[in-house]
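Issue: ligand-bound run for coenzyme A - logging full I/O for the record.

Environment: standard queue, default settings, no custom constraints.

Inputs:
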Amino acid sequence: MLSFRNRLTKTDINTIRNIANSTGFFDENDVRINVDIAEDLLCHKDTCHKFLFAEYKDQTVAYVCYGKVPDAKDGTYEIYWLSTHNEYRGLGIGSHLINHLITKLRKKGAEKIYVKTDSKDQYAPTRRFYEKCGFRLQAVLPGYYDDNDGCCIYALNLTRDAFENCQEQYLAAE
Ligand SMILES: CC(C)(COP(=O)(O)OP(=O)(O)OC[C@H]1O[C@@H](n2cnc3c(N)ncnc32)[C@H](O)[C@@H]1OP(=O)(O)O)[C@@H](O)C(=O)NCCC(=O)NCCS
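Outputs:
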């Protein structure tokens, strides 16, 4: 049975590092950024990011790091990082985690959630994942991450009609 928690504790530093490393998608710098965010949150140096964790059989198996976009209009959020431990990928955990986040943010008045991801082939399953969760491609910034790796910007519209449509798709896919 999958459960979710918001609370970040000291042991999550290692958990985040292990999960991010296990994916094989993130380089040392990316993993460091994830860990730095968690460390800053623990010592109250950061108020812009939040974590939501998915737990399965008493183990933390996935996390999403997200936040309100400070310079965008109210109700605009961004997913900054998302990882499911490699041993648990493809089991529906990421979809449940995102759906839980969407429900939570909607209650806070969220209208849009953005996420950026890579355009390179390795990330094709990740892009499919976001599309399955209801996100739609808004723009591609060529050469953003690297000369041969652009940035795909996706958005999920949470206004009533769009959200109901997305929920229907989600339930049908379950
Ligand atoms: C993207 C990610 C968080 C999805 O989490 P998940 O728990 O595997 O997601 P789910 O099981 O709910 O959904 C699986 C879907 O995601 C996609 N997917 C992405 N990577 C996958 C993988 N290694 N194995 C299977 N499916 C994968 C597939 O499209 C799949 O759809 P399908 O069920 O129709 O085949 C996870 O695969 C991951 O950590 N990937 C590497 C890191 C990454 O890309 N993070 C996002 C950076 S922006």
